[in-house]
Amino acid sequence: MQNTDKSSRPSGAAVTDDASMPLRGLRVLLLSPTQTGVQAGQLLADFGAEVVHVERTGGSALREQPAWPFWARGSCSIELDLHDEADVEVARRLAADSDVVIETFRPGVAARLGLGHEELSSLNPGLVYCSISGFGSKGAYADLQGYEGVVMAKTGVLWHMAGLAGGQRPAFPSALYSSFPATQLALQGILTALLEREDSGLGQRVETSLAQGLTVHDTFGWFARVVANRFGEGFSQSPVVVEGIPTGGLSFRLLIALTQDGHWLQFSQVVDRLFRAMMDVLDLGWVLDDPEWAGAPDFDDVDKRVAFWELLLRAVNARPLAEWQRRFDANPDVWAETFLKDNEVLDHPQSRWNRMVTEIDDPERGPVLQPSAVVRMDDTAWVGTPAPTLGQHERELRDRVAGKPDRFVGQADGGRDPAVPSETTAVLDGVTVLELGTYYAAPFGATLLADYGATVIKIEEPGGDPMRNMLPFPDVAGIKAVVGKKSIALDIRSEHGQAIVRELARSADVVLQSFRAGVAERLGLDAASLRAVNPDLVYLTAPGYGADGPCGHRPAYAPTIGAAVGLAHRNAGPSIEEHAGMDIEEIKRGAVHLMNAVMGGGNADGYAAVTAGTAMTLGLLARRRGFGGQNLFTTMLSTATHALSEDMVRYEGRGTVPVVDDGVHGFGALYRLYPAADGWVFLAAPSQPEWLRLDAALRRIGAPGGLLIAGDPRFRTVKTRLKHQSDLVDLLSEVFLEHSATEWETILRSADVACVEVVRGPVEAGYLDEGSVGQLSGFVTECLHPTLGTVPRLAPLVRFSRSATIAGDSCAIGQHTVEILEGIGYDADSIAKLEADGVIRR
User: Fold this and answer.
1) pTM score, two decimals?
2) Pairwise CA distance, residues 539 & 533, whole Å
3) pLDDT digits (tens, 9 = 90+) for 139-162
4) Greatest C-alpha distance within the chain
């Protein structure tokens, strides 16, 4: 239900009476000890919702993290002991008076506490109840603790990142490849469920998981594996690097090289035109016309490949960074990002230009520099108030619900009879999205909306989205970004093509475009032009860098953005070597190391795409709540900044974030990789209760090292274990060699300790193959492809208890051109004329 009595708000809470806040009037109860849930609450608070964070007695463990003032900004704080019945009753009453509950416990825990979906929805039928877990609520791994490292271990990511450790063993990346996407998927579920509630008057349960969040990063590996399984290994993807040597031309188009004065650069020249421009800037343009180098940058001969690679590396190493930056300024088609670290991206000129950095005065810390809202809505405001002190709103919140009934029944104003179910109707049924974009970083965001029931019209050039042909087998590389959509092949550079887009926009709800700066305006397809046709349009601009500004015109690909936000440094930490005077062999080793660090188990494309989905659903809900059409803006740069949020704050006295050890095993003794007698395990037992369970299990099986650990004063508390980390690592290393990885998973999971065998991968195999997490958890379904027939695809990444989702089929280039044109009034003769003129393809 929608709550109407919202006049009494905790003082200092995020929500004010400012009518420009699109989520004003919504109440959110946050039952989450994890960053995943708190970041979901952050976005809702950023746009005006009252977010009440239930903290354990003594405060959330997240308060100890440097990013707490960023994560918790705009929220309210109340301390509750959820093992105390009186405090649980307070939580129930808060939920009964809320619009949304977000919980991130293991499946079943909330219900045991009396705070599960069934109980709370019986008190409040309009409640949208969101659950985020590690592996979902079904399957063999549902009961497993949802730590990031555990999810990555069971899905093949840690072996996929083996290059960080030299390639012979798994390695631990520090970036949150699962958690941030899971946050965005949860937000999409919440926002679309709230949108549906505006009509039905009913809430429902929304569910997603870290394991599903991880899947947003795979652009085409899944379908490359499908083709290889069907037609033979000859169609499988080649590794990017073999024995320290790049295997294909893409590595040279996305060149990593060191400047003369010791700065690593990441180029982004995927398209032929851009690669030629890069060669000219490197003074190597002659190479592309020399028969000696025919086929560049693609060579089958290894020696030729190495010689070409060294040619590029020496050219970059011949000049200092400042000279390269001058050359880039002179040629807008050539660009390379410097590999930044920590929170240096907050000073990136495009971050500042985009107004996506802000400073908030915190009562405990003083001025805190941090990212502003991940989505910019030009027709609304965002809040940006400080994080609460512990229990700051305790008295007001307790007083507010003390006089309330313990049951709220009824339906939203104007809603239909709650007895009428809608399981066969999707949450975005009736919504139409026009997609103007290529590749993956924005288009996959529209794919997510198609899964929620939206009609997505993909407007692609007559030759098709270039992503379709990034692999040798035609069309395969683009399948994931086109499933569930309708394709119209249209030359939008032509006047007729632009007129067709404007006509489609007249009846659309959303437009998504991801062009470089100035392109949409030149085509007359920018927000102003299309909203002149349809003022109620939700128009999202989602480029790499920006719609204007110092880097808006620059080409942006996942590695470029990953370099700019510090993704490589976050993953590889102190193992990155970077200084002037490195010889060519050192540069080659360093470049390969950075390739592994910046494009491993996750990437900026995935972060950007999933956030674009959130932005569009936010715009739709804002419009439905009376705020009209919206101009929205988000970028690959800003989304990756939020994804690496642990680092992205700056204030006096700021503490440090965990840094991976030199061997890239993990964080400390109780959250890391260990070799077993056969294979590897990942252990995640950082809390005191988990430590006690681990210690008891080791003593119970009589592990030699376990007997030494038991009772040792060096390891008795969290504080003493931190002081003696290396000693504990040494002891546990001996212990884990006593049994195989499979045996350790069985032994310790039975003791409720998260210790799992590390799956070899590749990552897509962790979902596709028999016995994998994806298969056992129900994450996979099937769809039709125009030439491949029935193929497996991911099931929708968000589940709803009352609304349907749609796992749509793939489409060919222009498959729906005629259908779409007929829908806006074109007859057969007109369509034939457009085809003859080259405006369309069917």
Assistant:
1) 0.94
2) 12
3) 999 999 999 999 999 999 999 999
4) 86
